[in-house]
Fold:
Amino acid sequence: MIRSMPLMLWIITGIVVAVTLFILVPHSGTATAQNDSTAITQPGDPGREIAATVGPHVLYSSDLAVIRAGEGAVDAWTRDQLLACAAEEAGLENPAVSRFVQERAKQLYLRDLMVDHVIGSVASPSDAEVQACMQANPELYLVERHYYQIIAADSVIADSLHVRLGWGQNFQVTAQNSSLGQKAAIGGDLGFITGGEILAQGLPTNIALLDGLSEVVPSSIGWHIFKVSETRAITDSLRVMRSVAEELYNAEINTLIDSVLLSTENRLSAEVVH
Structure:
């Protein structure tokens, strides 16, 4: 009896192992298949609603909602992702450029958030503030000047035209024949404008307070020559007030942004290395 015990134990153990394997192996295989199936049919986070997939790349409906994507956004994303995948497969990607693009996109996103935050903290100027500004700068805001303009393609042409105008050549005829501006057909006539409105267009103070013929003034669209033929008191105060209010509003925003830049630069020690 004593000698037969090990044999009985081996038999019992064998039966238990066989039954266990019979039970576990099919379940293990089923679980693996299910996991593989889930990875194929539902990539990404299982708990989030998927709007589109391209291979392992996933576009979630919640992300579309966050950015308030319009109609056609899913189709556009799918098309762009297919092209991106094709570029990767063709070996066109430069990893360094990709990293920079990702960092730059985040930088612009955060920048816009900060700018929006600043804008949201600025109140529109009151009528009293606008009127006070106009009264403090009467030559800029209470006087309208009748402006004419010539736009030339380069500085050589502009200088030549300026010399001829200085000799007494008719400004309006010259504008009709030579100006590239939208008002060339009517002699470059811009109408009556206040100096403040001229400043708001990015032009210098000497043009805002112009009397007679200006020097050649460069800009991003060409070389300008201005002429003021007459002045008068403002006739449309509401238009001017709107212009001044916008100018004050933008000035306050720029002041706050400059303050944020200075404060952050002082904390982070920004440096441009050439």
The longest strand covers residues 222-233.
